[in-house]
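Technical annex B. To support the medicinal chemistry partners, we prepared a structural model of the target in complex with oxa(dethia)-CoA, based solely on the information shown next.
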Amino acid sequence: MNGIKIRGMGRCVPERVVTNADLAERVDTSDEWITSRTGILRRHHCTAETHSSLCAGAARAALERAGVLPEEIGACVVATVTADNLVPSAACTLQRELGLPGDIPCFDLSAACTGFLFALHTVECLLNASPRKFALVVGAETLSRVTNWDDRGTCILFGDGAGAAVVECREGWPSISSIMGCHGSGELLRLPGPGAGEPGLISMEGTRVFKFAVEAVPWCVDQVLKKTGRTVEDVDFFVFHQANARIIDLAVRKYRIPPEKYYKNIAEYGNTSAASIPLVLSELREQGKIGPGSRILAVGFGGGLTWGGCLIEFA
Ligand code: UT7
């Protein structure tokens, strides 16, 4: 199988910033509690923006940075659990908005916070079966629309945003070596759909999900290293899903990852689910901390439950 590399990244976040102090006016919480338990200082919530406008903003920026035209795209996958509509999908909406070709697969993928990594694996498979060389992968969420404001344990966590990658597939490039898993213990983290007969708001047993996460992250790191025959030292940068700074800190400590080899932006965006990993990648690329030649180990985990990891390179 031919591998994929990222050619360009883009991101788009809503203008409105919601601070911990803002939330403390709305629910029984404090800046001290949120900061110490999660590492979150702010998050961005949509006002005029929509899920579609965030996707389009991130995708346009990624195409521009990649130097790839919409008509060159061979597949478009949007990882999300909060699209504006179930039908048409966010990816089909993007196809029309950007003028992507009409004869390519465009669809949404639901794997919560692991969605972007599942989507990267999916487009690697799709491009191997396509005459086209490029694909658009977006991770986007408007979690502020499905937040339960009566639940202080979850409402302080989530933010809105979108990150996008234009990926290229070429003969001879190594596969991203994805590893993935899921376990349908859905009661730990739920976002009910139209058939559930209850309001479509997020609920989570935070402490149990935390325990799952601190086991899932090293499992994913170990599996990716094993599959690729690499060591921790071979990795130039570690990108973890931004769910809680404490989860990242535990992984960093376990693998003795030096500060210049990992990144946290949870303070600025909170937990943006499928958008979290591409937001990190986009910021790191812009700051020049990663680029062609960098070997990046990415790990995601979240609702489903789902988890996954892969080794990402830039073209
Ligand atoms: O992205 C998908 C995957 N998601 C995750 O990985 C999230 C994993 N879980 C977490 O990050 C953490 O479990 C949370 C940040 C959600 C919660 O932190 P915690 O340390 O597990 O807190 P807790 O739920 O055990 O609550 C501890 C105390 C409780 O009070 P008592 O019973 O000890 O008196 C809560 O009622 O903190 C209370 N509490 C709050 N207090 C102030 C819960 N939420 C708040 C709040 N402000 N917002």
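Notes passed to the chemistry partners:
Residues 237 and 289 are 9 Å apart (CA to CA).
The pocket of oxa(dethia)-CoA is lined by residues 29, 33, 37-38, 113, 152-153, 156, 206-207, 209-210, 213, 243-244, 247, 271, 302 (CB under 6 Å).
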